[in-house]
Write a structure and sequence with these properties.
191 residues; 2 domains; four-stranded antiparallel β-sheet; rod-shaped
């Protein structure tokens, strides 16, 4: 074979190989590359969505924990006002003295007894039981003042039960003056 024929033959083989490579690229590699790019985009979109959702979940969990901590703290404070966490005879006596003065009564005598602690269910919370302080009060004043005193105890923040009351007329028959003997139970949490 002559050199020119070899040259033409090698150009034709090179051209056919180049055409074959282009056909393979267009038919096989380019669609696979497009599929890979689509899959990469889908993976990136899913990763972004996952990160956004994780971020949103973390924000919600943080918000819930903050609200729970705040609400639990506020709730515990409110419960402690109604049902103190310890015995609080001075506080209760101060409240009764203030209520009596506001109602127009004077306290003649005070007695305090502690009743047995009532246990609560183990899953009920932090308190192990409910303690009771029993106050025996003798109050002097008019009947209307005693009614006001009872209403004030009923609407007082502190949890209390009126156990008994006894009204005795004192003074002259025309006077509106009574000696009232009452027994009131106050409650507290025993830890």
């Amino acid at each position: 074979m002559r050199a020119s024929t070899k040259r033409i033959l090698s150009i034709m083989i090179s051209a056919s190989l180049l055409i074959a490579v282009m056909i393979i690229y267009v038919k096989l590699i380019q669609p696979a590359y497009s599929d890979i790019q689509n899959l990469r985009g889908e993976i990136q979109a899913r990763n972004n969505l996952l990160e956004e959702q994780n971020h949103a979940v973390n924000q919600v969990q943080n918000l819930i924990s903050q609200l729970q901590d705040q609400n639990i703290t506020k709730f515990q404070e409110q419960i402690s006002l109604v049902l103190p966490t310890t015995e609080s005879v001075p506080q209760a006596l101060g409240q009764y003295q203030a209520i009596a003065q506001a109602s127009g009564l004077s306290i003649q005598s005070v007695g305090v007894n502690y009743l047995a602690i009532k246990p609560v269910a183990s899953d009920a919370g932090l308190a192990k039981g409910i303690g009771t302080e029993r106050f025996k009060l003798k109050l002097l004043g008019p009947y209307e003042a005693m009614r006001n005193f009872f209403q004030a105890i009923e609407t007082n923040v502190r949890l209390a039960d009126l156990v008994t009351f006894k009204i005795n007329r004192t003074g002259q028959s025309g006077q509106n003056l009574y000696l009232n003997e009452i027994v009131v139970d106050n409650y507290y949490q025993s830890n």
